Amino acid sequence: MYYHAYYPLDVVNGPGTRCTLFVAGCAHRCPGCYNRSTWRIDSGRPFTAAVADRLLADLGDRRIPRQGLSLSGGDPLHPANVAEIARLVTRVRQAYPQQDIWLWTGYRLAELNAAQRAILPWLDVLIDGRFEQDLADPGLIWRGSRNQVIHRLR
């Protein structure tokens, strides 16, 4: 898996102070997407064990308590990302069960395959649906267009 950005302190992508990872790879290629640079699956930098370890350490840093982890992109549920995302959310949930995990995907909940669905039990919130420029609404919280749904899984 590749990633474009990692923010150890983020207050925009979900509630509270969070760690946020923007992964590479998106098959949806939505017109009007604000993050087009993440579409190619091999763009950005490799997501290594060291990056995962740093993310886990940041989540555990009590000097700045974090509410959780946000995963965006690109698309964390792109087929090329699923295995690594599954490993990451499992580690986070086991190490920090009190913190929440949010994930944004262009896939609709009903479209998820078995491997993608296997990640759902580890998540607290899934925001699904492609960005649709005709339905864009800057007043929406944590979504770009009105068709996107916030699913509270826990």
Please characterize this protein's 3D structure.
34% of the residues are buried. Strand 4 (68-73), helix 2 (82-95) and strand 5 (100-104) form a beta-alpha-beta unit. This protein has helices spanning 49-60, 82-95, 114-117, and strands spanning 2-10, 18-23, 45-46, 68-73, 100-104, 125-128, 149-152. The longest helix has 14 residues, at 82-95. It is built from three helices and seven strands; from the N terminus they run βββαβαβαββ. The chain has one domain (2-152): Aldolase class I (TIM Barrel, Alpha-Beta Barrel), CATH 3.20.20.70. Helix 1 (49-60) runs parallel beside helix 2. The protein has 154 residues and is α/β, with parallel strands linked by helices.
Query: Which segments are poorly predicted (pLDDT under 50) over 5 or more consecutive residues?
Result: none
N-to-C SSE string, H for helix and E for strand:
EEEHEHEHEE
**Global structural class:** alpha/beta
Radius of gyration: 14 Å
Distance between the termini: 27 Å
CATH class: Alpha Beta
CATH architectural label: Alpha-Beta Barrel
CATH superfamily: Aldolase class I
Whole-number count of domains: 1
Structure summary, number of beta strands: 7
Q: What number is the mean pLDDT? A: 95
Beta-strand content estimate: 15-25%
Quick one: overall form? globular
- CATH domain fold name: TIM Barrel
Question: Helicity, in percent?
Answer: 10-25%
Strand numbers in spatial order across the main sheet:
3-1-2-4-5-6-7
Tally the helices.
3
Q: Characterize the largest beta sheet: strand count, sense, and whether it forms a barrel.
A: 7 strands, mixed
